[in-house]
Design a protein that fits this description.
Blueprint (H helix, E strand, L loop, with lengths): L2 H11 L4 E4 L6 H9 L5 E4 L3 H15 L3 E5 L3 H5 L1 H9 L4 E7 L15 H4 L8 E3 L6 H15 L2 E7 H4 L29 H13 L3 E5 L7 H11 L2 E4 L14 E4 L6 H9 L2 E5 L16 E6 L13 E4 L2 H8 L10 H21 L8 H8 L8 E4 L3 H9 L7 E3 L10 H11 L5 E6 H18 L9 E6 L4 H9 L7 H4 L6 H7 L3 E5 L5 H9 L5 E6 L13 H12 L5 H13 L4
Parallel strand pairs: 1-2, 1-3, 3-4, 4-6, 5-6, 7-8, 7-10, 8-9, 10-11, 11-12, 13-14, 13-15, 15-16, 16-18, 17-18
Length: about 600
């Protein structure tokens, strides 16, 4: 057994069944070991190392397990970085294993020699080590997994290619300096001090208008959040990463918050006198209550995140589920339900506004309509992924999450390109479920089309071959275009914003997948039905209007002023912009 074989064996002992990556001679020793151990652990080949890193982030998000990616030295390790930062910033446990040049050549400016310890010291700040002796392998791999799991972060292991081929040392010599480690994760219930719980209960019981904000840290506490909301007569808003925490058919759930959020979520934060934040680090202060206008309680497992986004009166350090279970007996039922009744009434009106906006004519198709018609057709237990940009906007606004569904995107990094690899990772983890990726044409051209090749490589082995990619094809890098107008007061810069019209559906068909191009709104429903019942993965290439505005839940005077400046400066799409903006605002909800 060489070091590569030992590492593969150790991965299986850490319950790893799948590694995402791309080959290179810097990891040939590991690849040979993967081949010899292929009955126990599988190597999933992506088209690009960045896609492998996105996939392990999604694997961690959707399974709760540590994800593992692998890449060669130099350029391969560099390519991983964006996806690894996605995992780091969204607090996902990931181990990156990368190759390096032979020890004898290091420091000589050798081909593909990169100082990986320095390169990775930020993204893998909690743990980054290079194995230079076979006897290190056991403790370095063990620590990488244990720290990634315990800290919910990225760790990295660098292995020079000559070390991979050396004879394994399964048991280090029992001498001074040797370290002996073992495998196995440990979990714990973390509950705040009783005094802190009592203070939180007093504050929440005194509040008259309670707003709850949940994020990705609240997934373990779904039932408890429902009970707290019912007792306190509260409304519940969701940060974007927490979109799937509670289903949208609950009448007191106000949907997402922020620029991509709903008007009722804005009004919930504006009108509340008490804020309970659960497992969220939502960063935008302008969408939270003005400091001093609401009292606050925050629950978070990470003490570093407490009182970071809002000056909380009571901070509860603990996991969401255990903390709420301890808090629930201390809460008093609010007899006055007028606040809750207002929230529910506002939500009824909001969903009607969303539906009315989606029906508005556009040239050729209103992007809202695509997702509005998709929403009731979503299969039970489907897994939804979205890319960054206006595709995330319509995902946040128009899709109603139901019980049992999963959904995610790049929350904190907000990078382009994760939707397709996220969907692929979901399919590998749950072959019997249907992933649906909502992607903009910019992200599709950047890297998404490459992963259609990966889908074509693997789809015939899946228990259910269905996987749907919906491309919102507006021939524009649309989110940045709108940011130019609304934030900078500048007209669309066509040289930077216009992108080619690519036949995505036809490209999918070239690969043996299914593809449908939709150019008329009346064809959306039929195309969705066909895609969701197909015998293979499908790409829907939907031509949508780039001039349908992303209307914030509350328009500020500065935004209106900047938008007006952009039009006055001669935006090339000004006629269409005026028409579509007028239609949106006339539908209300602003």
């Amino acid at each position: 057994m060489n070091v590569g074989d030992f590492i593969v064996k150790r991965l299986t002992e850490w319950q790893v069944s799948r590694v995402f990556g791309y080959p290179g001679d810097g990891i040939n020793g590991l690849l040979g070991a993967m081949n010899r151990g292929k009955e126990k652990i599988r190597f999933i080949q992506t088209r690009h190392e960045e896609m492998a890193a996105f996939m392990v982030c999604a694997h961690a998000k959707f399974t709760g397990q540590v994800g593992v990616c692998m890449a060669t030295s130099g350029p391969g390790a560099i390519h991983l970085l964006n996806g690894l930062y996605d995992a780091k910033l969204d607090h996902q446990p990931v181990v990156a294993i990368v190759g390096q040049q032979k020890r004898i050549s290091m420091g000589s400016n050798y081909q593909q020699e990169v100082d990986l310890l320095s390169l990775y010291k930020d993204v893998a700040a909690e743990y980054i080590q290079m194995i230079t002796d076979p006897a290190q392998a056991r403790q370095v791999i063990d620590r990488a997994f244990r720290i990634a799991h315990a800290e919910r972060t990225v760790t990295a292991v660098i292995i020079p290619n000559d070390v991979q081929e050396e004879k394994a040392v399964e048991e280090p010599p029992q001498e001074h300096g040797s370290v002996f480690t073992g495998v196995g994760y440990a979990n714990a219930r973390v509950i705040p001090e009783e005094n802190d719980l009592q203070q939180a209960a007093v504050l929440l019981n005194e509040g008259k208008k309670i707003a709850i904000l949940v994020g990705a840290g609240a997934f373990s506490a779904v039932d408890e959040i429902k009970q707290v909301a019912e007792i306190l007569g509260a409304g519940v808003a969701k940060a974007l990463l927490g979109k799937a925490v509670l289903p949208d058919d609950l009448p007191y759930v106000t949907g997402t918050i922020g620029l991509l959020g709903t008007k009722p979520s804005w009004e919930l934060m504006e009108g509340c006198d008490t804020l309970l934040m659960i497992g969220s680090s939502f960063p935008y202060a302008e969408y939270l209550p003005e400091p001093g206008k609401a009292r606050g309680v925050q629950i978070d497992i990470d003490g570093r995140m407490l009182s970071l986004r809002y000056p909380m009166e009571v901070n509860l350090l603990g996991d969401s589920k255990s903390t709420l279970q301890a808090l629930l007996p201390l809460l008093k039922y609010k007899e006055d339900r007028s606040w809750r009744e207002k929230i529910e009434k506002d939500m009824e009106a909001w969903w009607q506004t969303v539906a009315d906006r989606a029906k508005q004519d556009a040239d050729p198709i209103n992007p809202q309509r695509v997702l509005q018609e998709l929403s009731p057709k979503l299969p039970d237990r489907c897994i939804i992924t979205a890319d960054s940009g206006t595709s995330a906007f319509w995902y946040a606004r128009n899709l109603k999450i139901r019980e049992g569904m999963m959904a995610s995107l790049s929350g904190t990094l907000a990078t382009m390109c994760p939707a397709v690899p996220y969907a692929l990772a979901a399919k590998f983890a749950y072959p019997d479920r249907i992933p649906i990726a909502i992607v903009g044409d910019g992200a599709m051209q950047m890297l998404g089309m490459n992963e259609l090749i990966t889908i074509s490589k693997y789809w015939q082995e899946w228990a259910d071959p269905r996987l749907l990619i919906i491309v919102l094809n507006n021939r524009d890098l649309n989110m940045v275009t709108w940011e130019q107008r609304m934030q900078a007061g500048e007209p669309k810069f066509e040289a930077s914003q216009d992108i080619p019209d690519v036949p995505y559906a036809a490209f999918a068909e070239l690969l043996g997948l299914g593809g449908i191009r939709v150019e008329k709104p009346e064809d959306i429903s039929t195309a969705l039905d066909e895609a969701l019942t197909a015998d293979r993965p499908m790409v829907l290439d939907v031509l949508v209007d780039p001039n349908v505005p992303i209307v914030p839940p509350h328009i500020t005077m500065e935004q209106m002023s900047n938008y007006s400046k952009a039009l006055l400066k001669g935006d090339p799409d000004s006629i269409g912009l005026i028409r579509q903006t007028t239609r949106e605002i006339m539908q209300g909800g602003v």
